[in-house]
Task: structure prediction
Amino acid sequence: MKTKIGFITVLLAAACALPAKQLTPTISGNYLEVRSCDIYTGACVANSEMNLSGKEGMLVWSVREGSWKGTRLDGLSVIAVIEADGTLGDVHYQPRSGKAVIILDAKAGSEQQQALKDFARTMAGKLIGEIAEVKVASVDVSIGQCKGGSCATVKAGKLVEITTRCLGAKDHLCGNEENYYPPLTPVDSASSAYTEVASYNGSGLNVTWTLAGKRSAYLGTFAL
Result:
């Protein structure tokens, strides 16, 4: 009996020593979001913008590889241009809903475009409570291609243009800034960035905008 118990103990110890099984993501890629309010900021600036600005945003998912509900989306991108019902602040305490224009990658086939649209709606949740329009455009995305990892360029035809760079020492205004708001969607390794330009020049939301010089972007990755 002692020998049997000792043998079982050895087996259990060996099993506990094995590394946990790593699940392979079904879909993964890079993510960028830009808002019309600062996200890297202090309470003084955030309070001055709350309920007065920051209702607009753009969410970009660039799929590196993988499938969504059985449809391969390798190398394709989707953009959601959002107008929310309030300042896009702390979504944990102030959940927002909105309507969006969804821009689908022109490289995608019809089945892939449907999958991209469903993926964006799932990831954004209530932020895409209503789809105002669906557009198709040539989408070019480059995210994180610099030493600091917070540089990005996005173009979607003549509809969307985004350029970000890494935050620097001169981007501090009051000295107590932090990532005041969390990212709007589930992402990994999110880092804040400086928005050099972010513009939307399409229809569907009854508003267009061009933003420049704000600490209003997040870059990250997703893996589901």
About this structure: The chain has a mean pLDDT of 87.
